Amino acid sequence: MPAALDDFLWTYQSLIASLGVNGLLALSMYVVLAIGQLSLGQAAFMGVGAYASALLSLHTGLPFPLELAAAMLIPAAFALAIGAPTLRLSGVYLALATIGLGELLRIFLIQSDFTGGALGLSGIPAKAGFTLIYGCLAAATLALMLITRSRIGRAMEAIREDETAAAVSGVDLPRYKMTALVVSAMLAGLAGALNAHASSFIGPNDYGFDAAVTILSYALLGGVGSPFGSLAGALVLTLLPEILRPLQDFRLVVNGAIIVVAVLYMPHGLIPWRPLRIGARP
Amino acid sequence: MLLQQIINGIVAGSAYALFALGFTLTFGVLKIVNLTYGFYFSAGAYLALFATLHGAPITLALPFAAIAAGFIAVFLDSALLSRLRRQQAPELASLMVTLGATLFLYTGMTALIGSEIQRFPLGLIESAPFRFNGASISLTQIAIVMTAGLLAAGLIGVLRATRTGLAMRAMAENPQAGELMGIDTGAIMRRVSFLCGAIAGASGVLIGLEHNAITPYMGETMALKGFAVIILGGLGDVGGALIAGLLIGLLEALTAGYISSIYKDAVGFLLLVLTLWARPFGLFGRASVRRA
Amino acid sequence: MSAAPLLSIKGLTLRYGGLAAIEDFDLSVTEGALDALIGPNGAGKTSLFNLISGLTRQDEGEICLGGARIDRLSPSQRARRGLARTFQNLRLFAEMTAIENVLVGMHLHVGGSLIEILTRLGRFRKAERAAVEAARELLAFVGLSPSEYAPAGSLSYGDQRRLEIARALAAKPKLLLLDEPAAGMNPAETAALRLLLEKLRAQNISMLLVEHDMSLVMRLCDTITVLNFGRKIAEGPPDAVRADPAVMEAYLGVRGAAHVRGDSA
């Protein structure tokens, strides 16, 4: 490796890792928004994945892939528990229930000695390198792209536009909604585990309400027409604070303004692409 | 001991209820979960702080803060939501836009005035508590309990007995039908926004006085608790919010007293999750909710 | 009637609060029939469609399709059993193209497992191409070939109505429920719609239609059911319903009666 590149990677290693992790988080948000639902539990799912894998790393000798699997399956179980009662109801209920989940998690993490309380967990082995993080990101992007360009993606778009019309056309709403929420929880859990094993430290306040809103802003800025929109949103919003360092105090102010402007004035986001399905174009 | 726990519970519960009254009304009539509602709470507390630091007595500062918070609510509602209403955007769009605005407002406020805890000037309100049977309650606490009760009764009265209330209920049922019946829905929305903003602002002042600690994020903490209250009471149900607020307050006080204070804050959210499992339309199941 | 009815509804009741929107309602539609449901505004016609398609759940009564009860199934399960519908206030996927709207309607019939979707192997491409081909044919059938790739929301009102019918047909339904298909159409569009309905009948597709355009209903339909205040007040072939004094008085009124006799367009 050329020395200059090596230098660059060393200087910016945490930023490069965050870009990949935030990309995965943006995709996890995309999966839910793509069917017209709103989850504010992405940060909580991420936290569950992060803590589960970190505790396994610190206390057991489990192989890393198995830890990653656990970091995806445990949030998935939470998603099932939260989705079962709420997905039958109007979308507001999922949003509110996931806020509740995030707060319960935060309170639990702060109070529990096992999870290191308010201090969090440190000394997590650095098992997640760039190759793994970006490999996961590429695999998730490719899979989502292939799915959006199929009948499943078409049905998801239909649900987002008009649930009722999709249902009478034979789209199984409960199944689609639940699958989307579970997949999204798994992606967020994976992102959490990778982040924990890249940064070596995690704390209970990393996964609160503000984090959930930041993840939402990735997807809204980029647009939910295709997975690439959300990725672009994560890229911009992860780099922006680096570029606007002097504005540090106002970083989240910018995120908030972006959400407002995106919802009101650019509902299709920065990247308004629609998936290129067979037959979608002459 | 038990008496004091119950008093603490009723006071905390009344505070939750007071806050949640406007929150649930916003959903019932305007059909949105307006997350900026918590900001009006913070704004009310800071406005009253500003007024009292400039020598105003609390009897003046409280109505000033409530009215100003009401106008802030009307302004934000029209800036953020009128466009989405015109487009008949999905209800989650309004939730997201108020979410973004919330982040913007809280972080902006923190960046401008700092996050240090601020306090009302000493001697603003009689602070010696009333004592009886070994328990005590302060004047502010009594004010919170009475305001919550009177306000809930007043709101139910307005909704049931006045023309504006009738119009509000018609809109809660069906905004388009309301419009057809000759109701000026814009005017009603502005009134509801003002009323809700004023309730949030006033509760911010009272609760700020009670805790004697004002921070930018006090509204967010309260709003998170408020979700539990309005879901438990049933979205849009004013009476339900009062009872749910009291219930959560009492359960929190008893949890703190007899189990452990560290689990106190989990009570509300646990109830929220359980409610969604068992009775998604709230304890009384009569909320204005549409099934998906 | 010799064959078992395709759709049979017995004792259907729906209440809002204390008020009955539909009360003790019976109906049957035989295979291949083109029947109509008429009645004044607010009579409960759309409520009935919502009950049949599963968007609302009845308080009492049962709904059978092809002999099997469907009244506890979800809307998508009912679609799978062969039920399709259109909406009075058009519910298209506005940002998707016309052909994609039809492809969503075909959802139940497009193959390809998740593995095939992720690997692009097996039936995936073939199934998608076949679906696109079928969707093109349907658009041609309803006369929308020139607009295949136009966003549904950009189409004219009459075209949107026809696109909704194409989307419903894409599900290959046994029974098609049409909620006021001629509403808002100009005379030329209505004439085109009548031809379309006749073509569908020639293909032996059973239809139940809610419609206010009396000349369309009287000319086309086999059996007409008249609904008022959620109750059935008359039923029979057009001539009988036209002559029914109860219908004349209770529903059609003097002006409507003149309308039915053809005194006005």
From TrEMBL, chain A:
One of its GO terms (molecular function) is branched-chain amino acid transmembrane transporter activity. The keyword Heme does not apply. This is Branched-chain amino acid ABC transporter permease. It comes from the Bacteria. The chain crosses the membrane at residues 12-33, 40-58, 64-84, 91-109, 129-147, 180-203, 215-240, 252-271. Pfam families: BPD_transp_2. It is found in: Cell membrane. Keywords: Cell membrane, Membrane, Transmembrane, Transmembrane helix. GO terms for cellular component: plasma membrane. It is a multi-pass membrane protein.
UniProtKB/TrEMBL annotation, chain B:
Pfam families: BPD_transp_2. The keyword Endoplasmic reticulum does not apply. GO terms for biological process: amino acid transport. Keywords: Amino-acid transport, Cell membrane, Membrane, Transmembrane, Transmembrane helix, Transport. InterPro entries: ABC_transp_permease (IPR001851), BCAA_transport_permease (IPR052157). The keyword NAD does not apply. GO terms for molecular function: transmembrane transporter activity. It is a multi-pass membrane protein. The chain crosses the membrane at residues 6-30, 37-54, 60-80, 92-115, 135-159, 192-209, 229-254, 266-284. Its main location: membrane. It is found in: Cell membrane. GO terms for cellular component: plasma membrane. Belongs to the binding-protein-dependent transport system permease family. LivHM subfamily. This is Branched-chain amino acid ABC transporter permease. It comes from Methylocella silvestris.
UniProtKB/TrEMBL annotation, chain C:
SUPFAM superfamilies: P-loop containing nucleoside triphosphate hydrolases. Residues 7-254 form the ABC transporter domain. GO terms for cellular component: plasma membrane. It comes from the Bacteria. Keywords: ATP-binding, Nucleotide-binding, Transport. GO terms for biological process: D-alanine transmembrane transport; L-alanine transport; L-isoleucine import across plasma membrane; L-valine import across plasma membrane. The keyword Nucleotide-binding applies. One of its GO terms (molecular function) is ATP binding. Belongs to the ABC transporter superfamily. This is High-affinity branched-chain amino acid ABC transporter ATP-binding protein LivG. It comes from Methylocella silvestris. The lineage of its organism: Bacteria, Pseudomonadati, Pseudomonadota, Alphaproteobacteria, Hyphomicrobiales. The gene is livG.
